[in-house]
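Hi F.,

I've been meaning to write this up properly since the lab meeting, where we talked about keeping a consistent format for the predictions we share between groups. The idea is simple: the sequence comes first, exactly as it goes in, then the C-alpha cells exactly as they come out, then a line or two of notes. No screenshots and no reformatting. I'm using this chain as the first example so we have something concrete to point to.
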Amino acid sequence: MNPEHWLDAAEQLLGESRRGAPRQVNLRCAVSMVYYSLFHWLANCAADALAGSSGPRSRSWVRVYRGLDHRQVRQQCHHGRIPAEFPPGIRHFAAELAEMQALRHEADYDPSASFSKSDVREYLGIADNILETVQAASPAEKRALAIHVLCRERPATS
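Output, unedited:
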C-alpha cells in the first residue's frame, strides 16, 4: 500500500462537508490514516528489506509485511528503545510513528477526544516530511529498522 495514498485520503477527509467544517468523524479517520501511512510504509520497507522487492506476489514478502504487530512496533519505536547508532532520520521516523499511534488510539477509542482541521493538517505535514526523510535512508538502514521492529531483544543469559 502506498503511504502517499493514505495521506491523500486523509487530506480528502478534511474537505468541507455539506454543512461547513469537517465533522469529527472525518477528522478522527484522517488522524488514523496518517498513522497508517507510516505503519504501511514500515511494513513495505520491512518486507522489501527482508524478503526482497518482489512485492505481494511472494509468500515470504507478504509474511514479513503482515508480521508487523502494532503493539511491538510501538514498544520498539518508543523513544528509549531506538538504538543511538541509527541515523537521525530513522530515529525521528520511529519516534513520530509511536506518537502517531498514540494519536490514532485517541482518535479511535477516546470518545472525549476532539481534533481540529489544523491539528490534522499538522499531522499530515509531519508524516509527509518524515516519509520523505526516511525514504532516503540506505537499504542497510532500512533493513536495520525492519529487524529492530520485528525482533525483540532478549536479555543475555549467563
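Notes:
The first helix runs from residue 3 to 13.
The chain has a mean pLDDT of 90.

If this format works for you, I'll send the rest the same way.

G.
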